[in-house]
Amino acid sequence: MKHQTSSGVLTEQTPLLSADEDGISHASPESNAPTGTPTSSPPLGTPRVILIILSLCILIFLQASNMSGITTAQSSIADDLNTSGEDAIWFTSAYLISMASLAPLIGRLSQIFTPRLCILSSCLLFAAGGLLTGHAHSFITFISGRIVSGVGGAGVMTLILILVIELTGTKRRGLFLGLANAGFTTGVALGAVVAGGLVGITGWRPLFWGQAPLAVLAGIGIFWGLPTQFGSAAAGDGKARSLAYKFAHVDYSGAALLTSSLVLFLLGLTSPKIQYVPILISPVVLALFVANELYLAHDPIIPIPVLRSRGVLLTCFAQVGLMSVRWSVLFYAPVYALAVRNWSPATAGSILLPTNAGFALGGLLVGGLHIRRTGSFYLPTITAFAFFTFAVALLAFLATPTSPAPLIVATTALLGLSTGAAITYTLAHLLHLTAPPTHFVATSLSTTFRGFASSFGTAIGGGLFVHVLRRSLERGFAEVGVLKPDLVEELLRSPAAVAGLEGVEAQVARGGYVEALRTVWFSAAAVAVVVVFVQAAAGWKGAVEIEEHYGDVIGVTGNQGSSVASVFLQAPNWTVRGLVRDPSSPKAIELGAKGVELVKGDLTDPPSIAAAAEGVHVIFANTRFNPAQASESAEFKAHALPGQSPIDFHYEEEVAKGRNIADAAANVKGLERLIWSSASEPGKWSKGKYADLMSFESKGAVWKYIQDSHQELAKKTSILYLGSYATNMRWGPAAYNWIKKDDGSVALRIPGTGPHPIPFVVPSDTGNYVLALTKVPPGKKLVGCSECLTWDEFVELWSRVVGVKAVYEPCTIEEHVQAVPGGYTRMIGNMYEYATQFGYWGDGDPDVVFPEDLGVQIKRTPMEEFIKNEDWARVLN
Prior knowledge:
The protein has 4 domains: 206 residues, MFS general substrate transporter like domains (Growth Hormone, Chain: A, Up-down Bundle); 48 residues; 239 residues, Up-down Bundle (Growth Hormone, Chain: A), CATH 1.20.1250.20; 328 residues, NAD(P)-binding Rossmann-like Domain (Rossmann fold). Helix content is 61%, strand content 7%. The protein has 34 helices and 16 strands. The longest helix is centred in the middle third of the chain and has 41 residues.
């Protein structure tokens, strides 16, 4: 679906920062955005952009160089720590396993705690790991430092891509992602070169502890460069939830299961001797993870519904295979140069320059010259994969001491070129395979899977390499009668040790490395062949859109219902039906003219509700607790039972209407979702203190009825907690008691003494929240709000925007009622006190989420824009 803004088209993929289509977010002198523009962080000024870019470049280099730099420094580290050759493999594996295992968790944490906080925390962990590693005097301490660095590296890798996606416009986002990928691969190449050049001068320790200050400075640079509200779709939402709430919404079981599954699998394969028990346990744990995500997790780490797409699933697997094979080349090409070609450490590291330059060039050429349209890129993708497979097989064939060096270099360049092209084509084709609303999730998932590849490629390849090398060396030395266990261990530990050998020992050692390298790379080529077929099986047909989706809006002429109807009428493939009491009313006629199918009915007439709901896929329903219902209305006087209060009478009436809706919805064949506009249960969350807040309790009672009487319907239900209407400011002192003072200033005098903020919502945004709920699994309780503000914060914002001095003066409920006597005023006062004391949404409810938690962009009206566009003459006069 697309929404028009003053600057163009806003889609679910629009960046949080108001970027233009051609580049990074920037500051403009003024904003002419109309009310209704999405709530977002403010644009970035040039100094912030420069600071963020420089910091990102530092982090990209540090994170990437840690993957490859260890290869040329490994010998010195192993000698200093007296580490065996079999144990030396953990120098890299410890970092890569921890990084790959935690990457999905970091992505989820960034949604809960914001990328700004997570990138700083990740940089601090990365720095701590570098310090621990650089000062290690034992193998255990060194590996512990590498694990800590890997945890930080997981955050750095994931969050850099999140920042690139969030900070760039859609038109050139692919270019910036390509540049980021080019930066990563450049860091991998230079990491080995720099480490190889410095290790002989400074020793290996400064290579690690020297990264700490750079990582800290880069983290602080990004933290300062990003706006404080970056990552929250509504400024101030972070204040709405306590730290305990945020931690409660982490999917700990899913994180533990996914991490355990990956760690078990990689540990089993990377051990000097393959450990079959952890490998066999790993898929069992993975199955438990999937079950947890499907049936137990409130906020799954990985969006399982997206994985149900064959195209997405196979593309992700193909990405893992492609990049795993590439990593086997990146890791062992310098080893080939050291052990087989007898190059110096610095020169050995430079063998990665051609393949990484080709990688960057391939992506940029494909993105800049060919991918200038939407649609299928099936054949180009398969072709790029095929060239990649050919390059790997050719490299394996050429991995001998006598192959021409220029041919080796050209082969690695071809491998890099085809990899860059394959990744870029795959992304473009993935967008063709998936529907637009899922593009952001699908591309993020592909990136996450690709992040696993470094661990899989080096860990699995490393295990195979050590096994083959040990076997070849022991067999070779035994055949010539010079078997020396210590020499075998030294050669396993240090490829550079081959250069110090002469005669038959050098021949055996070099031959062992050739056999091990060719085995790894021919095996990688075989995997690449399989990957070609996996990618081919992803298909070439685009996402099949649902021909027609029917939505039923119950209460279509109200504030909420009319917004829902308007938004869904603009969404592709939606037909909207609406239940109205009077089809001849001006509002009904207006909606009918827009395309709403009007069905006459009443919530007290179950057959009319059933007729309106027949054959629909989604039902949005709400009932209205009319302000008049707090007093003796004509309906109350005609039908109330003896001794029944107006509030109790209308509570029962509203609950009965909600039950009628639920009964009708439960019998709709093919219904996919019921979205019930509800409210939290004050009696439950306040432990009875505000149990008489019937405007809330009535809606909660309907939800309880659905859970008790219609369990299957409950599984299809999403709850929308719309915040306090910002438009209530127009209603006068019963809702907002503005007091004008003699000096021309004003005071807002209303109850609300608790610590919790009020979630403010513009009713015309209701449809955007409802549409977002249709894009995520049921079971969410979404707090629909633009911003969450305390009364002091709201008055401060109002004063700044309107330009009138204002203060908040709290009062008691009784004082509030005295201003405008009546049951409605008391009900509003109770609502404010409950909301600020116990949370409008019921603080402590684990099912409650906020807009930024959904993973779907939601168009919202910022409170500043709402205030700016309101006429405040009534308040000021």
